[in-house]
Design goal:
alpha+beta; 3 helices
Length: 69
């Protein structure tokens, strides 16, 4: 089943490219979500729009420490 829905993102911007590999291999999302399975590349609307974002390891650490629930 194909479906479309809104994308909720922590930054505003313009989608520059989509990962065409996922069309043929959607299982990449389960196998390599932080590598080959990227979904989209976004050009931020503001130059420093990403300064409040965390890397995956930092986020994982905050979850494990109980700082984020």
């Amino acid at each position: 089943v194909k479906a479309a829905s809104d994308v909720f993102s922590p930054i505003d911007g313009e989608v520059e490219s989509i990962n065409e590999k996922l069309v043929e291999s959607p299982d990449l999302l389960n196998r390599d979500p932080h590598g080959e399975a990227w979904l989209i590349q976004v050009r931020p609307a503001q130059q420093r729009a990403d300064e409040h974002l965390m890397e995956a390891d930092e986020y994982r650490g905050k979850i494990e420490s109980g700082e984020i629930h």
